[in-house]
Amino acid sequence: MFWQLFYLPQPSNLHYVCYPESCGRFYLDPEHRVRRLAGLCKEYNLHIVLSGKGYVIAGGERHELLPGSGFLYGPGESHDYESDPNDPWDVCFVHFAGNGIEPLLEGKGRGEVWLFTLAQQRSRVEQALEKLRRLSEAFESTNEPAVSAALYEALSALMNDAGHHRRTAGNGTREKMFEVADYIRANCTRKLNLKSIADKAGYSPYHFTRIFQEAVGKSPTHYLTECRILLAKNLLVITPLAIKQIAYETGFSQSSYFISIFHRMTGMTPQQFRNLYG
Q: Which PROSITE patterns match (predicted)?
């Protein structure tokens, strides 16, 4: 059995979009199981499976998680997860909160656990969380911005890349809307609009908007905008691209409109965001 657990002091700057309360890693523990009643954990709880396998118990079902998959619980949610006794998982985890974290996470983990599977950005998410653990192990107060930035990089890559871990294999309307949501996220840099997305889904724009809203919790156009802003945040943090170029790269035809939408959704301009997290 191997454990790493690092608790961090409260940050001096309370305006970080995200900041860890604790983080770590554990593996080779066939008896590892966590059950928490609702209200006991005040932070978000994120786990990524590195190897082995384990299970999340939710909705009366036991969901198997393999390497590259993970789960997210929102603040105050009850927890129920465990390692496989015959193939114990190697898991990295972080408990975190933040100021304005909700738009980034799009409500994931609220009301029910979010199960996901990483694809192209898996190594980037894992590397960012490894960097977070290293910074936490040798924590210095001057590294607060780097700690927040490492966590933000992991979360933004996760939200860009993670597909929904399907609880059922059905072909119902709800399942199809989540597939459309994945399509929107993967193609948000293209010149998508409501009609083109509705055509892709095989519905009229009016009918598609209604059933997408019911399944995903927001309109398709709002979801598309959120995906573009999330990608823009990522580019602002990890690239030196000019604001005008980032607007173009994320599907906005005018940089002024991009800046306006970014400010409305985040409470700051793209340049202010870059100055804080870049």
A: HTH_ARAC_FAMILY_2
pLDDT, position 278: 65
For the CA atoms of 22, 24, 29, 31, the dihedral, rounded to the nearest 10 degrees, stands at 20
Tokens of 170: 């059905």
Q: Which two tokens stand for residue 104?
A: 């980034």
Phi, psi of 191 (to 5 degrees): -80, 70
Which residue type is seen at 128? A
Predicted pLDDT at 134: 94
Determine the average pLDDT of the residues in 192-201: 93
Given this model, what pLDDT does residue 82 score?
96
- In tens, the pLDDT along 58-102 reads 988 999 999 999 999 999 999 999 999 999 999 999 999 987 787
12-21, 29-38, 201-210: the lowest-pLDDT one: 12-21
- Please list the alpha-helical segments (H only) found in the chain: 102-105, 122-137, 144-161, 173-186, 194-201, 205-216, 220-238, 243-249, 255-266, 270-277
Q: Cβ distance 152 to 173 under 8 Å?
A: no
SS3 assignment, position 171: coil
Domains of the chain are: 2-164 (2.60.120.280), 170-278 (1.10.10.60)
